[in-house]
Design goal:
42% of the residues lie in helices and 14% in strands. By secondary structure, it is α/β, with parallel strands linked by helices. The relative contact order is 0.12.
């Protein structure tokens, strides 16, 4: 099929690296892997940082202009076989695809859409209504987590859903499992206020309680909360922590290969691409049993998931893997097998082909 791809939150071509951009790119790769021709329909970013009516009105005008541009383009060059919107949610609804595809009788699909009733207040209630209407209109809504599917099904019970497990391009991890220092911890995460900062705070507290063990840590990430993050770690020995800042995504595997355990609490994680990459490199994970993390880490098999907010349990899980090299080695192998066999680009492409084959295309 000829597929028009749109990511309202962040274009796949956005210069700022993030898990969202990475998944958009990987989805395109998976679609192309099974023979579809993917075109980036628009690079218009429809993102509302705060519920401000003036900003919302301005973005709606931009969306109407973009829809008019695409209308002229499709009238001249022909319409696509499918419109595919990635990650519409209350801060980044799709204001182009639903009406445009209805006008041209083009099937509409979403991937990783989400809906949370607790956001239904003020302007966010209006933007969530837009998400709900798009989900209802879609011939297929592809969900990455059961949590997202349940939220959408509660809001739009008549919608059509299909499941696709979170995945990565594993080509950078094919050669061999990690042979790095088993006591070196690794974290890869942006430094911004909110859930990310809360995760860094919990991680620092946990590490402070196991200072008697010979761990070191590499931290990949940067952002507006950099100074606040580093303040959280100020009480720990400076020579134990390597702050690598923001690095190119292609350099991340080398950092993972240098370590032995991946540690990240994961507050608010939709699922966490970094967890998938760490396991692909052969690193067992220590995270919380929270949000979408259980969709990408198998507790007791590829890592440990501890109760939300329990710093002591989180620290104990790290300590266990540091102290039991045999258990860490077994988990490392299980983690790598899990990702390479079940969460690879090839596996995802096959599942996508199966799901999209059910959409009637004229």
């Amino acid at each position: 099929m000829r597929i028009a791809f749109y990511a309202p939150l962040k274009s796949p071509n956005d210069p700022v690296a993030s898990g969202d951009r990475q998944m958009a790119r990987t989805l395109i790769m998976a679609l192309e892997h099974v023979g579809h021709r993917v075109e980036l329909a628009s690079e218009l970013r429809f993102y509302l940082r705060e519920p401000e009516p003036k900003s919302f009105d301005a973005l709606k005008i931009e969306a109407r202009e973009e829809a008019a541009r695409l209308t002229r383009l499709w009238a001249r060059d022909g319409k696509p076989d499918l419109w595919f919107t990635y990650h519409p949610y209350y801060k980044a609804p799709d204001l182009i695809g639903p009406e445009l595809t209805a006008a041209f009788a083009v099937p509409y699909a979403t991937a990783e859409a989400s809906y949370s009733r607790r956001r239904n207040a003020g302007l966010w209630a209006d933007t969530q209504a837009l998400v709900a209407r798009a989900v209802e209109r879609a011939a297929l809504n592809i969900c990455f987590t059961q949590r997202d599917r349940q939220g959408l099904a509660d809001a739009v019970p008549g919608a059509t859903f299909g499941m696709l497990s979170p995945f990565i391009d594993t080509s950078a991890f094919r050669e061999a499992p990690a042979q790095g220092c088993p006591t070196r911890l690794v974290t890869v995460a942006m430094m911004r206020p909110g859930d990310k900062l809360e995760s860094y705070r919990m991680l620092a507290q946990a590490l402070g309680s196991i200072g008697h063990l010979p761990w070191t840590m590499s931290v990949v990430g940067d952002g507006p909360a950099r100074d606040e993050v580093k303040t959280q770690f100020a009480g720990l020995p400076a020579d134990r922590i390597e702050w690598l800042g923001a690095i190119e995504p292609t350099a991340v595997p080398n950092v993972l290969y240098s370590g032995g355990i991946y540690v990240w609490p994961g507050f608010g994680e939709a699922y966490g691409v970094a967890y998938l990459e760490a396991q692909a490199a052969g690193l067992p994970v220590v995270a919380q049993d929270i949000a979408g993390v259980p969709e990408v880490v198998r507790d007791g098999q590829t890592g440990f998931l501890t109760p939300p907010g329990d710093v002591t349990a989180f620290a104990s899980a790290i300590e266990r893997l540091l102290a039991r090299d045999d258990e860490r080695t077994i988990m490392a192998a299980e983690a790598r097998h899990f990702i390479l066999e079940e969460r690879s680009l090839g596996a995802a492409a096959a599942r996508l082909a199966e799901l999209l084959a059910k959409i009637p295309v004229s």
